[in-house]
User: Fold these one by one.
Assistant:
Number 1:
Amino acid sequence: MTEKLLEVKNLKQYFNIGKPKEVRAVDDISFDIYKGETLGLVGESGCGKSTTGRTLIRLYNATGGEVLYDGVNVHGKKSGKELKEFNQKMQMIFQDPYASLNPRMKISDIIAEGIDIHGLAKSPKERLEKVYKLLETVGLNKEHANRYPHEFSGGQRQRIGIARALAVEPEFIIADEPISALDVSIQAQVVNLLKKLQKERELTYLFIAHDLSMVKYISDRIGVMYFGKLVELAPADDLYRNPVHPYTQSLLSAIPLPDPEYERSRKRKAYRPDIHQYEDGEDVRMREISPGHFVNCSEKEFEQYKANYNHKK
Ligand SMILES: Nc1ncnc2c1ncn2[C@@H]1O[C@H](COP(=O)(O)OP(=O)(O)OP(=O)(O)O)[C@@H](O)[C@H]1O
């Protein structure tokens, strides 16, 4: 995994600019996504994860910065044809599959929407065959094609959402909290399905989650967001073994452990942003503590983090 699919450079997404309610939902973040990998993006509700995803996929025009997809500026001027191509390459799966599936449409028409828009079937027969195949791919069957969303369970609806995204044969999928609304027992099934599809179709994922429990099983690397900023970015294993930023440590301490003995002794670590005490103009930025492991900090903090990091290793 060395080839970059996306390069996100100093991305900013502000809302209500200049008004009292201005929100800096995404505030100058940079990262890359490599072809075929899953980048997890975690952080508490409101930290800007969804806005990041939506800006990458052009649902919002960026306030600042740049997103390059295969070297092409996503937010740059494009012809209708180019825009359509982009829309086909990037797809999104949503948290609440019920809200994102039109209740009055049959499953076959929901799944085939993208096929129709992009003219991917030459006849109604081919269209239906594609729908059947997609239903099978996500673990459903062709009898489901004529039903409506309310006839399905949450897990099944999420499978339908996945089939709809796959219908246009995308390269990159943003999964925005795809399992948060599902029962824990179903969450693993959906994660496993996404992993299987990734392997078979060489997909690249941005997987958004609000905690660090499930994201571990799917992510190659994980980025942690806090208030519009990326505070840590690391290979998944390294992030779990050696979390550096105090906010990441706090998120990790919130994961319940299956072992009752450990669970009794688990201590939740609260994050206090005022511990940073940066001076005006202090150079606070992402610094690389070990290969591929970045933490947002000042030079002084970096020295402390490094001492601790090496000590733990
Ligand atoms: N269209 C919008 N207009 C104004 N403010 C917005 C808009 N969309 C998001 N925000 C604000 O931007 C911030 C980041 O929201 P965002 O939904 O990206 O966070 P999130 O981390 O994905 O949270 P959640 O997990 O709850 O979806 C929040 O303060 C939110 O209220």
Note: The chain is about 35% helix and 25% strand.
Number 2:
Amino acid sequence: MSAAPLLEPRDRTGDVASLFRLHAPDRRLATDGIHARLPAGPAATLGQRVATFFSTPRSGPDLLVGALPFDPHADDALYQPARVSAPGTGTLPASLGTLVAAAELPSAGAYADAVARCVAALQAAPNGADALRKVVLARGLRIEGSAPIDPHVLAVKLGSDASVTTYVVPLPVKADEAPAWLVGATPELLVSRRGRTVVSHPLAGSARRTGDAAEDRRRTDALLASGKDLHEHRLVVEAILDGLAPLCSRLQAPPRPSLQATATMLHLATRIIGTLKDPDVSSATLAGVLHPTPAVCGTPRLPALQAIRDLEPFDRGFYAGAVGWTDASGDGDWYVAIRCARVQGNAMHLFAGAGIVADSQPALEVDETAAKFMALRNAIGIDDVRAV
Ligand SMILES: C=C(O[C@@H]1C=C(C(=O)O)C=C[C@H]1O)C(=O)O
């Protein structure tokens, strides 16, 4: 197998299991080893657990890294790394080996049926603040390889799109299981904190990017004028403003979204900036308050979570959760864990979801989720998700 030069460190034993990587356009973080684990718990107690962790004298970096699962009531997986590592001290194989798309769960047809059932429920929902207004429904694709899949090779391939944040996050596994990671390339910032300044940059309302400049311009204009997509987007911005408002003395968001493009997608995006009233509110607390936003869950949160449980035939695990870091000062970055795969042994599970509102059309949501698989599909070189 040919080797690519100087891409990512191995740790001292050459083990990749505990390597964490978060490469944002403006900041690169890589760590290796696990010094101590944060006691696991739900999103609501994350801020308190992190504060307790850092208030206890200990050796090792003043840093916690890891992932929150989609379900805010399920256990998260954060740990203090052994070392912050300098990227570029090792080599990686250039290839992921032979991969085939093995199974869709659910099939495109079953996904369309679930979207149709969801639309019917949204249309039947009574008017009022508590009524179900949006549900994000996802589907999965299992890919199999001829040999164990190296998550860092996949991340390097995903990193060829400079507009996204690539990540590799070790996931908890049972004692008899092979190591597992969440590997992805997200365009979406859940929340970032530096001192008192808080930034969130949600996306919702999407179209496939074609690569043809005139057609992409047309799609961009259509997206920025689409009542359905602006509504889907507004619900996310409102939820984030509602979450941040009690914590901020100043909070600003432009009245209309702008366009954010990745190599494969066009998204409506809004950059929200706030100033914390209390500088002791950490990025972990903020992530715990905001997650899951209606970009990945729906509105209102609890009925949307229930609809997802009822309509999706799989457990999301850490897909549509959050990945990131927080330090002892409370600063940190948390990204929405989308455009990703759970990698374990010879297999990976890809996930893609789309926001459903009362006027969504099932066939268009099938296409939107197929387009959202493209980032991963391009990286692993599988052209057609239906090919087996
Ligand atoms: C849920 C996903 O993406 C989210 C849903 C979007 C939408 O519905 O338009 C856009 C970006 C993300 O917030 C995903 O990629 O799996």
Note: The chain has one domain: 3-380.
